[in-house]
Amino acid sequence: xxxxxxxxxxxxxxxxxxxxxxxxxxxxxxxxxxxxxxxxxxxxxxxxxxxxxxxxxxxxxxxxxxxxxxxxxxxxxxxxxxxxxxxxxxxxxxxxxxxxxxxxxxxxxxxxxxxxxxxxxxxxxxxxxxxxxxxxxxxxxxxxxxxxxxxxxxxxxxxxxxxxxxxxxxxxxxxxxxxxxxxxxxxxxxxxxxxxxxxxxxxxxxxxxxxxxxxxxxxxxxxxxxxxxxxxxxxxxxxxxxxxxxxxxxxxxxxxxxxxxxxxxxxxxxxxxxxxxxxxxxxxxxxxxxxxxxxxxxxxxxxxxxxxxxxxxxxxxxxxxxxxxxxxxxxxxxxxxxxxxxxxxxxxxxxxxxxxxxxxxxxxxxxxxxxxxxxxxxxxxxxxxxxxxxxxxxxxxxxxxxxxxxxxxxxxxxxxxxxxxxxxxxxxxxxxxxxxxxxxxxxxxxxxxxxxxxxxxxxxxxxxxxxxxxxxxxxxxxxxxxxxxxxxxxxxxxxxxxxxxxxxxxxxxxxxxxxxxxxxxxxxxxxxxxxxxxxxxxxxxxxxxxxxxxxxxxxxxxxxxxxxxxxxxxxxxxxxxxxxxxxxxxxxxxxxxxxxxxxxxxxxxxxxxxxxxxxxxxxxxxxxxxxxxxxxxxxxxxxxxxxxxxxxxxxxxxxxxxxxxxxxxxxxxxxxxx
Length: 674
Hints:
Strand 7 (314-316) and strand 8 form a beta hairpin. The model is unreliable at 149-156, 264-279 and 349-355 (pLDDT under 50). The protein is built from 23 helices and 16 strands. The chain is of the alpha/beta class. Helix 2 packs parallel to helix 3 and helix 5 crosses helix 10. It folds into 2 domains: 58-348, Rossmann fold; 388-583 and 617-670, Rossmann fold (3-Layer(aba) Sandwich), CATH 3.40.50.720. The protein is elongated.
């Protein structure tokens, strides 16, 4: 048996050692903490102090579901930008987007999936962005892969891994992925100039002496640290060459180091015994003078919004900094660009074919197209009239020129009612208009112009709910369709384009008179020149021709506005008709059913014609807006407009006897009594 005195001595010794260990640990912790405070007091992290707003601008941030990318996206959302989080993990990105929406108060934060380790994913992403986004002002290439610790790895650093397309992972994601992404979106960036490309590199690029063009994929002597540094040196060279190629385009490019930031990629580390010391030292190093994600995002934000920056510069802590000499090698930058083009399958035709002949040809073609399109764009409404306290109804406002007209009315402060047949599309359009204008007073009313009952019901709801009506814009229309009939048995083109608006306008006339001065704006077409009123067969029951039917309906619209103006003289209600221009809208969606298989051959010709000689929907809405808001237009009541100016209609459109006869026939057909 062990003597009691020996037991007591052993116990006292262990207790003394335990207390010593506790005291020692406390002292060491205090020293480390005080050291951290001393370091942080001495460190001066850069902060972006720019107050620039980003309202109306669009920003894409890759790898923005966490850390510095997420913080940069949050800051840009707070500045009012439309922010697209481009991430591989959709679930995490949606969670980040929801958090950013709540913290920034900006609901215009979207998620788009892109995997930078897959060229096909990048191409699909860019195709979707180009198809859906009208502009791109800032592209932040933030996503990246680094040699971090892995949960299932027996070593501290990741093994050599390849992308879907067979490239070494860090070079493929950090450089090639962003190289292809940027180049595919360059046209959109140029269209939105002044715009920017911001590429997040690393201070680690200084330790990589050169790009080994014979083995960029590190198939021999792989080192994860060197692979990472090489990818970051490639980022620097890419920005340098990109800035040169974009000179004069209005697109600027910047590279930066965010600093030493503990990102979410560090969360799931499990150190092996052999790497315990190195891992502990690295963690202590980050804790002592590393940055938080918000601090690390400052340089990215600075490069995205600050004024007066010089394209091609490298930044650290929100200040320009000289990169390593190897990052300023123009020959290496050129070789890397050409190699990257080959690896990603991207070829810039402008740089590939640089002969004088091609340049002159492209220049001449561009000049011709520019002149044609500028001429085709037509007039612009320059009126600055505000519409606060006024109510506007726009029919067919869920798409095309109707939607753009409604958007302009909302921007001027009006209460806008979208009168549409398709309520789903109408609510989407209303949400879009509210979001883009900041005017929440945008409403939807169901209106099917092919149904007299629907028109009467809509008019009743408006009369019951609205105290005034200042502007009625009869915009909805249909064209190039087979001989269909409305629910009341009228030929559909005449029924929708003329009779529907005829009934709606007359049912709302008392509300318009009560709100005088007020206006009725009727969207017609230049095709009314080819039309005539077929009083003997108004519904084209014999010998239907879709072009003649369309011409008749648009001639009827011009005559209606002219006759309405005469009948409303002295009431304070004025009326106007107009030609919006040649525009490709959903009104021609039934054309295939008219011309059949021939449409396959005609479509390219039609599209080219529309592109060369047509207007976009914003341009097409200008004359409608002009007739709705321009001051002093009352003296031109009953007139026909085109490109924001009075234009002579067809001789038949000025025949007062025919106009009166059409009014009486229309009233009889819709069941109105005067």
